[in-house]
Design goal:
The complex is a heterodimer of chains A (about 120) and B (about 350). Chain A is an all-beta fold. Chain A has strands at about 5-10, 20, 25-30, 35-40, 55-60, 65-75, 85, 105-110, 115-120. The chains are: A mainly beta (about 120), B alpha/beta (about 350).
């Protein structure tokens, strides 16, 4: 395992993606409930650069069928096709077809003083 | 390896970019902002609002106005051999003001020649027309046909025109006498059998039903029989529905040919010979499913690759066409079938590198 300092903690924001590099690997990072979350910056679908993706609240419907959002569940949407991925688990919100592996690849991220570090 | 992208949506910065190419009084109307141009009667739900989110034009272009951006994102990135420009401004969406519609089509063609085709020999162009006025459209086709990069006539699929109707004959005659092909592509005014539906997902899913209806219209009204040299390209209309349409048309032809004796061969034969379908948006099917579909089509010469750049449902050529496909089939999809459709000579070096 190699440890990389990818940014300062104050460079990350809730609800926004920060494009970074872990060594030579492009990654995107955000804060979820104050904790750093770092994923490989390639959409598992067709390889889109996730740096231009969007972090949004998970959308569902209430009992009356009205659209609502859950601020406690963050979803990353691909900048191309808009596929949704749970930002904490990496799993696609809509299950993938059996032959496709559609899951964000998380890196093991932690806070080290003022820095965000990942272990690859 | 060669790569032909059959559907790239070049654009302008705004409608006012056409002013220099418009005659009076239309140039003044557009210049003074009398018309804001086409938009779409729905809200996009993708992160990039209809485009890939990484395609943001500083000038506010609704599509892409920068050749340099297109080169970076598509032409050079994927080493495209030929890219077919299919436009993003379709005057046929106007249901009135025919003289303005004709003028806009001509202006757009002149704009594309100067601002796009001239910049890259890899571009193949589509002649845009105002299809509601077929005689005028034919004159426009004749006017633009001599440009060496113009290889097809673009028929925009709107909500109320089925192009097999004999009233569109002047358009097909003009394409035929000029050695041009025909390409159909939906617009933001396309409708399904009962309209656009109630959600964007519904509207987008219904597009292929409108495209199927266009193919059925062309076959049943004899377009394939009357114009024996014309080839027909359907863009962004899906392809996995084709076996059903082939079987259904053949069955209908067997039982009802007495009504349509101008159809002189099985519809499926016409389709295999001269209808091509672009692959975007692929439907994330497996390589095995691709192979099954091609077997059901009865030929591997129908499918042609496209990206649909800059739109959000863009297909990456390295990801969208499974690498597990048989090599020959993958080559045909990625370039050979399109090269045959447009009678293109692929540079030997490009083939050798394959």
């Amino acid at each position: 395992m190699t440890r990389h300092v990818i940014c300062r903690r104050d460079e990350l924001r809730e609800g926004a993606l920060t494009p970074l590099r872990a060594g030579r690997m492009p990654v995107v990072a955000t804060l979820v409930g104050g904790a750093p979350t770092v994923v490989v910056a390639r959409c598992p679908h067709q390889g889109a650069d996730l740096a231009r993706g969007a972090v949004v609240d998970h959308v569902s419907v209430d009992a009356e069928g009205c659209i609502m959002v859950d601020p406690d569940r963050a979803v990353l949407r691909c900048p191309w096709h808009g596929f949704e991925f749970d930002i904490l688990t990496g799993e696609p919100v809509v299950p993938a077809p059996p032959h496709l592996r559609l899951r964000l690849r998380h890196l093991d991220a932690s806070v080290d003083g003022d820095d965000i570090v990942v272990d690859i | 390896m060669p790569l032909i992208d059959t559907d790239i949506h070049e654009g302008y910065s705004s409608l006012k970019a056409l002013v220099p190419y418009l005659p009076a009084p239309f140039d003044g109307w557009i210049a003074q902002g009398a018309w804001r141009g086409f938009t779409q009667p729905f809200c996009y739900t993708s992160p990039g609002n209809g485009n890939r989110a990484d395609v943001k034009s500083e000038d506010g272009s609704p599509s892409v106005s920068s050749y340099e951006m297109m080169r970076e994102h598509v032409l050079d990135r994927y080493d495209v051999t030929y890219g077919v420009l299919t436009g993003y401004f379709y005057p046929t969406m106007l249901k009135m003001q025919y003289q303005l519609g004709n003028a806009l089509a001509s202006a757009y063609n002149d704009f594309v020649v100067e601002h796009w085709l001239a910049k890259d020999r890899r571009f193949i162009g589509s002649i845009q027309i105002f299809a509601r006025d077929p005689e005028a459209a034919a004159r426009e086709i004749d006017r633009m046909a001599d440009h060496p990069q113009m290889r097809q006539v673009k028929l925009p699929v709107v909500g109320d025109l089925a192009y097999g109707d004999p009233r569109f004959a002047p358009i097909f005659e003009a394409a035929d006498r000029n050695g041009l092909q025909i390409a159909l592509h939906h617009t933001t005014s396309v409708e399904g059998p009962y309209g656009m539906g109630l959600t964007y997902m519904e509207r987008h899913s219904l597009i292929s039903t409108a495209i199927q209806a266009q193919v059925i219209s062309l076959i049943c009204n004899g377009a394939f029989d009357r114009y024996e040299n014309l080839r027909f390209m359907v863009l962004e209309g899906g392809f996995s529905w084709l076996p059903h349409v082939m079987w259904r048309l053949d069955r209908e032809y067997r039982q009802g040919r007495v009504e349509v004796p101008w159809i002189r061969k099985l519809p499926s034969e016409h389709i295999r010979e001269r209808l091509r379908l672009s692959t975007q948006p692929t439907e994330d099917i497996s390589a095995e499913q691709w192979v099954k579909l091609v077997e059901l089509m009865g030929t591997d010469e129908i499918l042609v690759f496209s990206t649909d750049y800059p739109h959000f449902d863009f297909d990456d050529p390295n990801a969208a066409i499974p690498r597990a496909l048989p090599d020959d089939l993958r080559d045909k999809i990625l370039w050979k079938n399109a090269a045959a459709f447009y009678d293109l000579d692929i540079p030997p070096a490009a083939v050798a590198a394959e």
